[in-house]
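Dear H.,

Thanks for agreeing to be a second pair of eyes. The structure we're designing against is below in token form, covering all 399 positions.
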């Protein structure tokens, strides 16, 4: 009898020592593109979140994850947030993925006073509106542009650049930052082409770019368009010094597998397994073992975002005000590296010498890397502190 009582007391003490122990299960919303055009990338974010849920459970943090499919469409995302906030009464929301959806629901987060943690949407405006309830883990669009163009300048001496990008929040934001930064760096913009997402034929536009003879071609696309653009670029004979992919569709297993068109292409990325961040290599191994796929930055961003939210609700429970305050004041270090949501100013310079001051709120200062597809695999080539191989320069189509 005494032994049984002693064992019971020991188990109770151990349970109380676990983070979040003794608390009721907290509801957390997860909004993502589970269906629709962006579903392939949405799947990788979901996989990352699922691995985070496993790790949070091991820590004794009990979360009821309430999932919503925004289908990649802003009106659907807004309805999904309303359901999560008012119907399910979640303590916080992780997601959504796309810039269009994330930007659309940001005002709703403030309206319902529920913290929204963005894992991978890059449009500048998402965290420049002074919204106290929106937090972003990933780097914004200007970091995409700067990392790619800085890498190109480190590898060669490009003088001209052309842009082709989808007419979405993501495409327009990344391209706008890229055009300004290229001009400031003395690279002349000789092509500026936008397109409707999902268009089947880009040949005439790509031929136009070929005639401009740019040293660099900067492309911003999701998965299907990234593959189509590169296939047709090869068909029309477009061959710059470098193709620069603005993350998203250019950092996916599907794009990597298309070796005839992906070889020697650069892409900016939020994360690689070999960046040396805590647990990154182990996460990559687990991901491959469970899903039989290469983990992209989308998976890592999903994982990191869920781990941050899980840590917070494990400490403060489901009170929305306490969750918001804990996100604003906390700091974490995991597979993405340091995460701290800060308020700071960024001065964007334009080609005409004018300056635009942006104030970011609850934005994590995250350093990006650049990968290149070599021998059928993504390898980190920039910046030097992350680089594992030298870049192939200039670009040549795989024979």
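And this is the sequence the design step returned. I haven't edited it by hand at all.
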């Amino acid at each position: 009898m005494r032994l049984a009582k002693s064992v019971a007391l020991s188990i109770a003490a151990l349970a109380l020592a676990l983070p979040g122990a003794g608390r009721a299960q907290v509801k957390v919303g997860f909004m993502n593109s589970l269906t629709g055009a962006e579903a392939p990338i949405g799947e990788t974010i979901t996989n990352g979140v699922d691995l985070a849920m496993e790790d949070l459970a091991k820590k004794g943090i009990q979360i009821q994850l309430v999932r919503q499919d925004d289908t990649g469409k802003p009106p659907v995302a807004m309805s999904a947030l309303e359901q999560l906030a008012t119907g399910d009464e979640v303590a916080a929301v992780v997601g959504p993925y796309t810039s269009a959806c994330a930007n659309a629901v940001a005002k709703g987060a403030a309206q319902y006073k529920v913290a929204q943690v963005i894992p991978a949407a890059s449009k500048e405006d998402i965290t420049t509106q002074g919204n106290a309830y929106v937090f972003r883990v990933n780097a914004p669009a200007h970091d995409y542009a700067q990392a790619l163009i800085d890498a190109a300048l480190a590898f060669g001496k490009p003088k001209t650049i052309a842009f082709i990008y989808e007419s979405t929040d993501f495409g327009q934001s990344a391209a706008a930052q890229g055009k300004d930064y290229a001009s400031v760096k003395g690279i002349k913009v000789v092509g500026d082409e936008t397109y409707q997402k999902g268009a089947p034929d880009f040949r005439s536009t790509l031929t136009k770019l070929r005639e401009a003879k740019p040293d660099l071609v900067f492309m911003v696309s999701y998965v299907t368009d990234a593959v189509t653009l590169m296939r047709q670029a090869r068909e029309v004979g477009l061959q710059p010094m470098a193709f620069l992919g603005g993350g998203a569709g250019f950092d996916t297993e599907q794009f990597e597998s298309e070796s005839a068109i992906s070889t020697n292409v650069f892409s900016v990325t939020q994360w690689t397994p070999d960046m040396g961040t805590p647990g990154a290599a182990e996460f990559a191994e687990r991901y491959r073992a469970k899903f039989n796929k290469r983990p992209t930055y989308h998976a890592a961003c999903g994982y990191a975002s869920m781990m941050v939210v899980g840590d917070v609700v494990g400490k403060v429970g489901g009170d929305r005000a306490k969750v918001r305050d804990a996100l604003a004041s906390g700091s974490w270090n995991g597979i993405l590296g340091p995460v701290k949501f800060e308020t700071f100013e960024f001065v964007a310079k334009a080609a005409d010498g004018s300056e635009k001051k942006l104030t970011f709120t609850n934005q994590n200062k995250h350093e990006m890397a650049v990968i290149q597809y070599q021998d059928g695999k993504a390898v980190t080539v920039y910046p030097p502190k992350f680089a594992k191989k030298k870049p192939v320069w200039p670009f040549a189509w795989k024979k």
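Two observations from my side: The first strand starts at residue 26 and ends at 32. Residues 39-58 form the longest helix (20 residues).

Warmly,
E.
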